[in-house]
UniProtKB/TrEMBL annotation:
A GO CC annotation given for this chain: plasma membrane
Subcellular location: Membrane
Domain of life: Eukaryota
Primary residence: membrane
Enzyme Commission number: 7.6.2.1
Keyword hit for Acyltransferase: no
Annotated SUPFAM superfamilies: HAD-like
Catalytic activity from the UniProt record: ATP + H2O + phospholipidSide 1 = ADP + phosphate + phospholipidSide 2
Keyword check for rRNA-binding: no
Name of protein: P-type phospholipid transporter
Stretches assigned to the P-type ATPase C-terminal domain: 200-286
């Protein structure tokens, strides 16, 4: 159905656009923000799988993906355009799996393949061939999903999070990205001209897309290191405190008498062990 529809649209355009005199033309360009290609390249080189989820039409979405370096010059682009045809959709998925299987894979098991799928085809895949589509999704470096509804964007995020327990980050700047941002484990809203719904629904808000590198690679790394240190410190101080009580029990005949006064036990975390985790949570770096 999808291929027949495109043929009919092309035939209608040919029938209408005849004996016309061109008086002028205009173009509208939605320019990318600064350093978007560099940001995308940074995460792709880091082994991050990037999916572009948009409501734009197929041609526009592919052009934006190419301009943003999401689709490289050496990548194999596969279009899934079966529409509502379940059998054709199954054939396209099987053919895609064969192509991926015959291509070289990187160290993280990803092939240099980018699939392009529209919302109508995705609805058919979700209803009939969900597992096969997910197996493909885990073997490719990136994908472009066009003509998606907000709920379909959230469904793709849910697919990755439930399929293999991956941590997904949803990034958006408009109201149609809110459901995706809320579904993701980590939601990032970009402040823009499309309202503040995305940033209000997100966990983190950044002014520009390029700041995503610093958010993940700098602040995200520091947060991971600091949380790990605080967890280790918490286990250490509590084990030391409990061990002294346990050893003291051998000397008092297991009467239940404590080695510390009650006020020391009650205020240990507040007065005596507050400074190390406080400083580590602020200045600890690797």
């Amino acid at each position: 159905m999808g291929g027949l529809r495109q043929v009919q649209i092309s035939a209608a355009c040919v029938a209408v656009e005849q004996q016309m005199r061109l008086l002028g033309c205009s173009g509208v360009e939605d320019k990318l923000q600064d350093c978007v290609p560099e940001t995308i390249s940074f995460f792709l080189k880091s082994g991050v799988t990037i999916w572009m989820l948009t409501g734009d039409k197929r041609e526009t979405a592919v052009n934006i993906a190419q301009a943003a370096n999401l689709v490289g010059s050496g990548d194999k682009v596969i279009h899934l355009d079966a529409g509502g045809d379940v059998q054709q959709c199954l054939q396209d998925l099987s053919h895609t799996q064969c192509i991926i299987g015959n291509m070289p894979h990187s160290k993280d098991g990803k092939a240099s393949v980018v699939i392009v799928v529209d919302g109508h085809t995705f609805a058919t895949i979700k209803a009939a061939h969900w597992k096969q589509f997910f197996s493909i999704a885990t073997c490719i470096k990136s994908a472009v999903c066009c003509r998606l509804t907000p709920l379909q964007k959230a469904s793709i995020v849910e697919m990755f999070q439930q399929g293999n327990q991956n941590i997904c980050m949803g990034i958006g700047d408009g109201a149609n990205d809110v459901s995706m941002i809320q579904e993701a484990r980590v939601g990032v809203g970009i402040m823009g001209l499309e309202g503040s719904q995305a940033e209000l629904a997100s966990d983190f808000a950044i002014p520009r897309f390029k700041h995503l590198i610093r958010l993940c690679a700098v602040h995200g790394r520091f947060a991971c290191v600091r949380n790990a240190y605080l967890i280790q410190h918490s286990f250490y101080k509590n084990n030391v405190f409990a061990s002294m009580q346990a050893f003291f029990a051998f000397y008092n005949g297991f009467t239940g008498q404590t080695i510390f006064d009650d006020w020391i036990i009650a205020s240990m975390n507040l007065l005596f062990t507050q400074l190390p985790p406080f400083l580590a949570g602020i200045i600890e770096k690797d």
